Amino acid sequence: MAKTAAECTTMMDIRENIDRVDSALMALFAERWSFIGRAAEIKAGLGIPADVPERVRQVRDNAHRNAEALGLDGAFYEEIWAQLIQRAIAYEKAQLGEA
């Protein structure tokens, strides 16, 4: 059963809810990845390269700002997003036939 952290009274409650949140995060990552695949298709049609540095900076800045707005460590989450971006660029490069 979904509970807030404050409603959890046992470690079992905590673990069940962490697992629930992790599952929801994976669903969001899967949705995010569907957009990466579509971006590669659109970029191919427009001749846009996989790596667009100004967009990379914007996405990293967004991650940093969004994390801090929620009281999280912006630098830490920006680094997580840097890894997501790196993987997405590698995927798009493969899809676009870039070296």
Automatic annotation (TrEMBL):
The keyword DNA-binding does not apply. The keyword Isomerase applies. Its EC number is 5.4.99.5. It comes from the Bacteria. InterPro entries: Chorismate_II_sf (IPR036263), Chorismate_mutase-related (IPR051331), CM_dom_sf (IPR036979), CM_II_prokaryot (IPR002701), Isochorismate_pyruvate-lyase (IPR008241). Residues 5-96 form the Chorismate mutase domain. Pfam families: CM_2. GO terms for biological process: chorismate metabolic process; salicylic acid biosynthetic process. PROSITE patterns: CHORISMATE_MUT_2. This is chorismate mutase. It comes from Shinella zoogloeoides.
